[in-house]
Write a structure and sequence with these properties.
Blueprint: E1 4-9, H1 13-24, H2 26-33, E2 37-43, H3 47-54, E3 59-61, H4 64-69, E4 75-78, H5 85-95, E5 99-102, H6 105-122, E6 126-127, H7 138-145, E7 151-157, H8 160-172, H9 176-185, H10 194-197, H11 200-214, E8 224-225, H12 233-241, E9 244-255, E10 258-269, E11 281-288, E12 292-299, H13 303-320, E13 352-362, H14 367-377, E14 382-387, H15 390-394, E15 400-407, E16 410-411, H16 412-423, E17 433-437
Helix pairs in contact: 1-13, 5-6, 6-11, 8-9
This protein binds nicotinamide-adenine-dinucleotide, L-homoserine and sodium ion.
């Protein structure tokens, strides 16, 4: 049988890794797929760099549409990124009857419904293992390996750039900007790194996992998104003193009244495996009702780790593309006509979790009682209190101190309202810092 012919759109970090790994392991991949898989045509705006990357024997063009128009191409890989031209090209490739592989989580989290619908109608596959947690086969695990389960929750470190920044800042005392530049140099960061540091990239990924886990449409616009740019060094330190590490988590959970979908810095108990995932590594914890808690760990970014997932999708398509479209693994795990239409993504005020509160307060008698009294009145139960010595916080003779409170599970809206009241107390001297805490049990 002649090899499956693949057209590659965009040969940057992930594209070049895909080309190299496919070439290096071609014999073994062929034995697995039952058929050869060859990248025969590449489009990149920088044709000189592209030619240097692929060598002779591969057609290189600057116009991606020439790849889509080529009737010999069976699968199109989109590795350009973004929602602009990438969206048009993916839609055109589907319309031309090509299967598509993409690592573009931004595109799928925002336009997934439209893209998957078009693919379904055309009977082609849109595969996206590389879009979530890079080389970790988490889409496969959720969609196939855990298919028996009612998934209860997922929590993951799914942005390598921010985990790298948090780890390097804590371990080496380096400043934010220096570490971000290093993450960009290593090819981890998005073209626009604000997507990484403001939590948007993690929210794209958790939105996709949420859809697959709970059978709901991809709804990025309903995700709560907070990054790490406002995180203060002293909170990392106080969290450690209380036995926690701070990680940027993507969380999605089946609650009584809907689905939680959120990204924010979270305190994680230091003894949990997730708390010890360092550098650009990713890890996702999935809790299913039958299997219990499972953990997936590996490289979530970088050239060849991401290529590993792109090529796994190529092999899947090669194996399955002759199968009846109705019998293939559905894009979002549930058959399109059997999605959950009664499960809404909850507004953040309805989310229930526990909290870390840091208050800069006047070091005077009765402050602790006033603060805890107000929390008790609001029905917020306290798990732990840490009060620093004034001298330690503000230097000798200081009249201010930090009061840190950990709460038990509370509805976010209740905490919002209590924080507004606390903030108005004369002895609370600065904006209160609120972080969320996930026990992951
Ligand atoms: N870098 C990673 O570790 C990583 C991991 C997972 C997913 N992703 C995703 O993979 C995709 C690609 O990321 P990357 O890091 O390889 O990006 P990159 O910037 O290194 O590569 C993009 C390539 O696309 C080319 N390009 C841009 N516009 C084009 C056009 N109109 N036609 C043809 N080529 C065009 C650029 O010249 C460049 O070579 C993105 O969606 C990204 O979010 C990246
Ligand atoms: N910018 C992303 C790349 C992988 O999706 C990250 O840092 O995790
Ligand atoms: Na993956």
């Amino acid at each position: 049988m002649k090899p499956i012919q693949v057209g590659l759109l965009g040969i940057g970090t992930v594209g070049s890794g895909t080309f190299n790994v496919l070439k290096r392991n071609q014999e073994e991949i062929k034995r697995r797929a039952g058929r050869g898989i060859e990248i025969t045509m590449v489009a990149d705006l920088d044709t000189e760099r592209a030619k240097a990357a692929v060598g002779g024997g591969v057609q290189v063009v600057s116009d991606a549409r020439a790849v889509i128009a080529n009737p010999d191409i069976d699968i199109v890989i989109e590795l350009i990124g973004g929602y602009g031209i990438a969206k048009q090209l993916v839609m055109e490739a589907i319309a031309a009857g090509k299967h598509v592989v993409t690592a573009n989580k931004a595109l799928l989290a925002v336009h997934g419904t439209e893209i998957f619908e078009a693919a379904q109608q055309k009977g082609v596959m849109v595969a996206f293992e590389a879009a979530v947690a890079g080389g970790i086969p988490i889409i496969k695990a959720l969609r196939e390996g855990l298919t028996a389960n009612s998934i209860q929750w997922i929590a993951g470190i799914i942005n390598g750039t921010t985990n790298f920044i948090l780890s390097e800042m804590r371990d080496k005392g380096l400043d934010f900007g220096t570490v971000l530049k290093e993450a960009q140099r290593l090819g981890y960061a998005e073209a626009d790194p604000t997507f990484d540091i403001e939590g948007v990239d993690a929210a794209h990924k958790v939105t996709l996992m949420s859809a697959i886990a709970f059978g709901i449409p991809v709804q990025f616009s309903k995700a709560h998104v907070e990054g790490i740019t406002k995180l203060a060094a002293q909170d990392i330190k106080y969290a450690e003193q209380l036995g926690y590490r701070i990680k940027l988590l993507g969380v999605t959970k089946r609650a009584k009244n809907g689905i939680e979908l959120r990204v924010h810095p979270s305190l994680v108990p230091a003894k949990r495996l997730l708390a010890n995932v360092e550098g650009a590594m990713n890890a996702v914890v999935v809790h299913g009702d039958a299997v219990g808690t499972t953990l997936y760990y590996g490289k979530g970014a970088g050239s060849e780790p991401t290529a590993s997932a792109v090529i796994a999708d190529l092999v899947d398509i090669t194996r399955l593309h002759t199968a009846d479209a109705a019998q293939r693994v559905p894009h979002l795990a549930f058959h399109p006509n059997a999605m959950n239409d009664h499960l809404d993504v909850l507004p953040m005020r309805e989310v229930v979790t526990s909290y870390y509160l840091r208050m800069r307060v006047a070091d005077e008698a009765g402050v602790l009682a006033r603060v805890t009294g107000l929390l008790a009145n609001a029905g917020i139960s306290i798990d732990a209190v840490l009060q620093r010595e004034a001298d330690e916080v503000g230097g000798e003779g200081s009249t201010q101190t930090d009061l840190i409170i950990l709460t038990h599970d509370t509805r976010e809206g209740t905490v919002d309202d209590a924080l507004a009241e606390l903030q108005a107390l004369p002895s609370v001297l600065a904006p209160i810092v609120r972080l969320r805490k996930e026990e992951l049990s």
